């Protein structure tokens, strides 16, 4: 790439060019002012030549052609170093004027990051950067240590109107107003002079001017004089299609056209003048001077001999001048001549000759410690290296060396350091070293804030253009730049840089810097009067929960000040204070489903559906509800909408959260709705006027007309509340449509300190919990359709609740309750049905007992027989209760119905009730509705009851029952008062006095007791009835009183409602309802709380009853065959005469429903098989008992003292007793029957014998009708084990004594 074609190359060809000093008379300026231009401004556009094509020969004999060339024209007063303060003010004006052009761009949205990366550099960089950099470079012009700004020629200009023009030419150059560079000796006064006579054609013909020109040529030379005629246009209305003076148009003179008096001939004359002056005067003069200086330098300084001589001379000098300005050098010194040679060669594009001379002089300046001149040479050397496109490393080294040297000079080198840094930056940009260029921008930042702001902004773009883009550094340097712009009151530039930084930080997690940018942009926009844009940015920092409390207060205070300064109320879409948690949005409406309370509306819809399946009427062919049919009759646009009833509120629950640590007040919170009747759209909003919404873009988008709620179409609720720091609050908003039509929930609005915020549900994809009814699976619909409702005409609505439903109760507690139902409508409802989710906890009572005392409902009357019937309640299938057909509810008269509550088990219990009812009005759109009730009950532990039943070994159908009771309550004591068996098959009696079991008459917390009872079956077998086996047990009944006799408590009827209903529910919970199993028994334990523990008078007046149910307690073992041995326990016999024969009887009972094949195998006491344990008798070891008195017999029969008797096994191989009957008996026993088997033993010696040495084998077989079932069981090993078995004999001890 040609270095001259790069931005730096173009800049060098414009800035390092020959300077021509212009000396003119006032008359010349008067003629030029007619065109709105000065003389220099009039000529400057024609001083830049893109192809001047002048042949040159400088240092070598090889000529080259100069194509691009430019002259810089300056008045003699401008040929001086610019004043620093004036230069700063000029730069400030440039920056301020650039900011004024940014007004339109400030209001637009900041660009996206993707757009930044895709845009070209020219589109992103502000256009005024280039102009500003040129101005910064020019602040270091006309320095003593550099000669490319020293004029190479002088253009003396006199008007034809001036008197004695020849004398005026002489006086112009001899004036005391010449630049200080000439007067101080820094510049050679012998420069090129060219004389120009200007004639204004408005003053007349040019004959006088021609005569003056002839006189000039005779005085100054023919080639050095020239005549220029201008202002040939008489009407001053010339318009130039290609305006060469476009860059000189000022805002102060917008009316006058520049160059209006110059016609085409005048412009051609200007071009020819400057072309001839450059090609025939300036360039040849510079060429000649380069050749002369090159010869002088070659003779004195080039070559090894001259270099050694120069070095030796410099080292021999006294202490050199260390002044940084280097004033020891004049224009005639060899060092100055070499610098002039190099600069002239550079401006004539002979960069090799220039570089050779710069190298030559660089060492001299370094040895002389002329640091400013040394830095200037290093700087121009780097530029020469760049234009030659040679060593990049050398170019960067020279540039950095010059830059560092300038910085070491302090304030005197600051302007040169800035210029050097800008050259260096452009050099790095040309080589795509943007990251390194950004670091140079950072280094040339001075303490002057405005200058630093511009440099930091340009550095940020270098980070953006680097590969890969460094976006975070780009944004960070923009923020640094904007902060400095703000400190210098350049607000528009500060906004521009911060907006660009926002493109980077908007999508990042760097919340603190993002808040900083938004906050300050909002402040600055407010200062400029753009309150709408300021509010939009301040809204972004309101929900700054991550900030400290002090910062949040600052943000909030400034936000409110902006609103107050605006002097009007704003409609703010998406106001983030407070924050609305849209995921918590819940819409509750009532169609055919109504709710008795808010908790009922929060229950999952699937649970309600499962309960109402048996209540809702079905259509033929499929289970559905009226809404599925009704939607088919609706218009197509409304089929996907929900249905609500006019006059009934729709509830919307929204969570508001304060993200700040500062409390905030919120007022006028309400819904935004649309209600349409026919095709007319009506927007309902009680908090805004028509004009406010009409001016708001979001509300204009709705395209609706605004009416207030007092118009009669809707009723909207409003809420005022305050949120503490970090507080969340659920707010229930309602809208009640009064007319039929289509209602749509649009959003929610609120007022916060003078600004009205609103949030539209359409702005996000809603994911919400909406209580919805059963719908058929249809095509997927938009979530916004869930916020649309078809409003139908009013229909009756049933309201209901359970009076005094408790929040807590102990397990087993039975309480009477009242269900109250009311219909406020004048239209009656009928055909009521009710279903309860947990009949185990809640039972429906009889209407007749509503006014009966609680005790009377539960007491067992004396005339009642055991086994009374249950309450005759009219029930349909699946536990649905049918209210009487004559029940109708209308008007203010409520329906009261008794209920029974029993806390069944310790848990947090949730009760669900659905009441179905139909409309009596046949013309109603809704044919039926349901009322849903929901209650929560915490059940606390009370008594834990368990039973263990053991068969009585001596009697059939009698069992020993052990009841264990533990008080697991935390603070309540109880009294057990009654134990009952359910049904007619069992009777129970107490085995011990109650006073001996519970001395304190109550169970305190954590206390446990065991009770023992005798359980007897009321069903006698055929054998028992025939043989009249004596019953040794006391009389038994279904109920046993457990409280002391001093406590007079009436018996509770466990077979009547409500205990019977609750017991049926318990049986359903544990097994199959009404299952007939003769081997199981159910118990009901009745208890009461200790009266001294009651906490209130109300509790003491109201009787409290607890019931504890135990179902399916088994009385039989795993074997269906049971038996008992009947016979004597003590026998006297004289063994001296013969052995003793004793007759026994075995009663066997078959409790199964199958025929049992039974075999009994006996074994003697000795020689028995290994399968049975030794059952041998015991013999006395005393030598002789002479007389067996009754006393002795009693001792032997009882526990004999060890000194008299010692029993031990007989080791004799002879059997102590033998079974004298058949050793094996086989027989069959009919189902559920008993039989007696006679047995006999022979005893050979006195002793106590265990007659358990027998084995009973049984096998069940079905009759012919059960063959299939038997085969099925035989195929299952588990079932086979239940069809047969082997049992060992029960222990039966017989004592045989020696008689006298």
UniProtKB/TrEMBL annotation:
SUPFAM superfamilies xrefs: TPR-like (SSF48452)
Highest taxon of source: Eukaryota
Domain TPPC8 first Ig-like as annotated: residue spans: 606-753
Ranges where the TPPC8 second Ig-like domain occurs: 812-931
Signal peptide stretch: none
CC per GO annotation: TRAPPIII protein complex
TPPC8 C-terminal Ig-like domain boundaries: 1123-1253
Record-linked PANTHER family: TRAFFICKING PROTEIN PARTICLE COMPLEX SUBUNIT 8, TRANSPORT PROTEIN TRAPP
The protein's name: Trafficking protein particle complex subunit 8
Organism: Linum tenue
Lineage: Eukaryota, Viridiplantae, Streptophyta, Embryophyta, Tracheophyta
